[in-house]
Structures are given as C-alpha cells and as structure tokens.
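Suppose a classmate hands you a notebook page containing two proteins, each written out with its sequence and a corresponding row of structure tokens. How would you begin to make sense of it? This section walks through that situation. The first entry is reproduced here exactly as it would appear on such a page.
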Amino acid sequence: MNLLSLSLLLLLVLSPTALASDKAKGEGHVPTKKCTLQNFQLLKVGTDVKTVFKDFGEPLRDIGSGIHIYEYKLADDSIIRVGCVTTVFYVDHIQGKQNTRLAGPAIDPNAK
C-alpha cells in the first residue's frame, strides 16, 4: 500500500469521528429565534421531545447520563437545560451559579 492510499484510508476512517466529536461539543449549533427565556418558560412537563426540537432546534449538546439533558445557550450566555427521554421531565435556567427550575418538580436545595 502506497502513502497516498494509506492517507486516504486514514481520512475516511477518522472523518466521521471528528464530525461526531464536533457535534458533541455543540459545533454547528444554531439556536432558533424562539430560543429565549420567555419561550422556554412556556415549556411544560410532558411536552414531546420532538416538539422541543421543532420549536427550539437542535441543542448545543446532551450532557445527560440515563436521561437526556439537552443544553441550549441563550443570547445572554445563560443556559437552558431540558431533562427528558421522550417527554420533558424538567426545564432549568442556569445563569452563573444560579439554577432556576422553570418546569418540573422543585429543586431540593439539600441534594448533593
């Protein structure tokens, strides 16, 4: 196998991995005009995740383990986290160290 063939083979093998890692980092995330705090405040527990994607676009990333926790970045650099599997369990607004529950069960301040 010559050097050109080997280079092409490596390119084909490594390109999908690079693209996947870019998506995981939120590369290419384009929030819709609906990505505002006011619109996320209207999200209700039980909303279908397909509706969330339709209304707000693809999330910046999924930080969940066990359930999906989709992150959306707002214009003021605060973060919205939508916890769900097939429907929304909760919606949180993160601004600095402040975490405000917009929908779902109350946050237990004593939980670690």
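The notebook's second entry, a different protein, reads as follows.
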Amino acid sequence: MGESPFNLAFRTEADLPPEVVFPTSRVEHFNPGASETSLRENLDLVKELRTEAHLWSLHYRMAIARLYNRKVRPWLVNDNDLVLRKAMVSDLKHSHDMLALRWEGPYVSSGPSEMGLTP
C-alpha cells in the first residue's frame, strides 16, 4: 500500500521536471486554449508542407532528367548490327542476385521497328 503505479511498473519513483517544482515563464504563461488552436492550425499546414515538398521533388527530378537527356544522342541501327537487349526477369531464382546479367545478347538486328529494335 502507498505505492504509486509508476513505482510498481518501473521500480523507481518518478522525478518531477524542474518546471513543475520551480515555475518558469513558459509554464506560467501557458494557455491550453491557444495551444490547442495552434496545434490544429499546424495540423492543417501539414498537408500544404507535404504538397510543397512533393512539388519540389518533382521539379528536382525533372531538372535532373533534363540534364541527363541532354547527353543522350540518337543512334541509328542498321540491318545486321549487333545489339544488346535489356534482360527481363525470366528466372525468379536469380532475379534478385546482385551479379545477375543486366543485358542479353548480342543479337543481330533486322533494323528498326515501331517498338524499337527487333533482334
């Protein structure tokens, strides 16, 4: 008897923070109503902050893509040229392997088609 629930749970007495024992200006001027109002306003602003961050991320990705695509040059492939094809996941056992092949080939091209190259 006479034991606090905190003491029973954690086998130690809870220490009070100094703001409770020695009142500070923050504790003396605390207004629960204003605190609740500002908390709700901040929760409303979270959506706006997320939207801004998402738009900034999209802008950044587009800028990086523009810089990358400046260096890309079209390459004409003629008949009977040797080409590589990006490897598709055909073997599920080795698809997550770090040393798995990324490209298949070489294949002899039969020229350009509507979907790209035809091996």
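A careful reader of the second entry would note: The chain has two domains: 14-73, 75-119.
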